[in-house]
Amino acid sequence: MKKIIKYVITDILRNRIMLFYTLFLLVTTFSVFSLDDNPAKGLLSMLNIILLIVPLVSIMFSTIYLYNSTEFIDLLVSQPLKRKTIWLSLFIGLSASFSFSLLIGIGLPIIIFQPNAIGAMLIGIGIILSNVFIAIAMLASVKTRDKAKGIGFAILVWLYFTILFDGLVLFFLFQFADYPLDNIMIIISSFNPIDLSRILILLQLDVSAMMGYTGAIFKDFFGTSSGMIISFSILMFWVFFPVFFSIRNFNKKDL
Known about the structure:
Number of strands: 0
Helix content: over 70%
Oligomer: single chain
Largest sheet: none
Number of helices: 10
Order of helices and strands: HHHHHHHHHH
């Protein structure tokens, strides 16, 4: 297992796309903090990048990487190795590579400009979101053999969580505006890891006006500490759930 993980990490970190991604995050983060004297505004700007760019790159790169590694995976399956071990090794390798990239690209500037608990949480949220969308990418790639369908599904998932979900929530709110929806909105928010990540950070920054309806409910109902614990637990579930089902599918898949 260690050899597979080491190979995957080495292979990914030498990839030009990953190097460009790390450099992009590094330059962007330094630029954001350098252009504004207020570190809190810099964190808000970085939050947008983490909520949009990080999930997109994570799910797209992971999906394409897994499809391009089909022959390598077939070779591993032919060895006396458990399929669960192979699939978990691929996930850990992808997760470690993206985590390292985020620590360099976002972590270093935050340590320099904003070395506090909020900055650390921003880095942590970026790493968790990467893992969530890597897990979804692994589930998508194991469910279909067609590379084009797999990549298309990955793009649709990203669009749904970043754009379509909020539109559907607003439509739901307008349709049932006369009813008490507080508890229902708490449940609905748990179905979007990006929304949960946004709430978790904004609760720490205490920017109530920018939190939106769902974030305000989280703050009023749970309070800061409870909201953090519940949001973090659900985000961990978003990592576990796709990985678990992708392993089940990979174990049954006819290669």
